[in-house]
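Need residues for this backbone.
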């Protein structure tokens, strides 16, 4: 009887179903063979006024790695689509792109709680997505549509969601930031100050602009960390350390994330008049945060190249669908001009495009 069953199974597998059955068995075996987690050596952080710093090893599960990869790839593709829409004059006004710096916002977000508060500056699209805002709402905000995350009224520099207050146009204005350091230290506020050092202040390199480029020491009396901002695991471990430091009641801490932006300062800046194409390409080839994560996952059997390619395809599809929404959703009507200025405030009149027109606000 057993021989008859084996012979029948053999005939089935030699028929049209053979290839499909083989594919199913191979896929199942490969999935089962993936490692559930792996341990990685990461770059040691430079320390200021700290006895010890974050761990130099990081454990990453397969699920975490896939999440980090998809999130960073989504931000990268979203920014490239924003570049395209801006050049088509569908996005207007200011637009500051984040591609190259994805490990910063992703590493920070996975190390803190959704209930923690985040304030950022104008290169805010990545943070907005990491905080949970869908791509379609971000792109629709960039195109000034009703479906945008702030109803089409904020644009690139002013996106918000729950516990997220960004971005803002002034980046660490010198007098203000030192006053803030001082108050945070005096009151022992649980505040993590982040400097995303992408090596250029608009079109000026940090070496030309600052006698000291040790930004993690700029808090003086506030402890600081200098972190490899191109490595999502390094950022994650440093942010965990900083969060624990603050939650323990020790006061503020400062993190400098050494990173790099692939685009210019804004869309009006080609980004190659003050740096060479070769410099940008070298960073892309040696330090790209997505490539680094991809290589780690594949080399440590946390994922296959084919699986990551499937994520890439799904991400591109999501971005295209979001762009379609962002270019067809209607613009907010003029009578909403004064809406959502204040939250939970009584309605008030707002003057329209001329002095004889009045609109009623909505909270």
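Answer:
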């Amino acid at each position: 009887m057993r021989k008859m069953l084996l012979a029948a199974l053999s005939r089935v597998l030699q028929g049209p179903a053979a290839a499909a059955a083989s594919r199913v068995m191979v896929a199942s075996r490969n999935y089962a063979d993936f490692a559930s987690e792996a341990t990685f050596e990461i770059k040691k952080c430079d320390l200021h006024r700290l006895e010890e710093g974050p761990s130099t090893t990081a454990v990453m599960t397969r699920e975490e790695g896939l999440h980090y990869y998809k999130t960073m790839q989504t931000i990268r593709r979203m920014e490239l689509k924003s570049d395209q829409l801006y050049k088509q004059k569908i996005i207007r006004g200011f637009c500051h792109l984040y591609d190259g710096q994805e490990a910063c916002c992703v590493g920070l977000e996975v190390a803190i709680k959704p209930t923690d508060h985040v304030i950022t500056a104008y290169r805010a699209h990545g943070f907005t997505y990491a905080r949970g805002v869908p791509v379609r709402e971000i792109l629709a905000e960039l195109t000034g549509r009703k479906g945008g995350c702030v109803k089409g009224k904020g644009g690139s520099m002013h996106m918000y969601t729950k516990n997220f207050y960004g971005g803002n146009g002034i980046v660490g204005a010198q007098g203000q930031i030192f006053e803030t350091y001082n108050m945070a230290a005096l009151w022992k506020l649980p505040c993590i100050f982040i400097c995303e050092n992408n090596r250029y202040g608009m079109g000026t390199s940090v070496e030309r602009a600052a006698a000291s480029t040790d930004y993690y020491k700029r808090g003086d009396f506030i402890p600081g960390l200098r972190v490899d901002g191109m490595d999502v695991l390094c950022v994650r471990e440093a942010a965990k350390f900083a969060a624990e430091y603050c939650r323990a009641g020790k006061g503020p801490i400062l993190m400098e994330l050494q990173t790099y932006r692939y685009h210019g300062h804004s869309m009006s800046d080609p980004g190659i008049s003050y740096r060479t194409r070769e410099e940008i390409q070298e960073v892309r080839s040696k330090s790209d945060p997505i490539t680094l994560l991809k290589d780690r996952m594949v080399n440590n059997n946390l994922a296959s190249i084919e699986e990551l390619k499937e994520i890439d395809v799904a991400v591109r599809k999501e971005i295209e669908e979001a762009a379609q929404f962002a270019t067809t959703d209607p613009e907010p009507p003029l009578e909403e001009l004064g809406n959502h200025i204040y939250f939970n405030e009584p309605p008030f009149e707002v003057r329209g495009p001329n002095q004889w027109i009045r609109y009623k606000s909505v909270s």
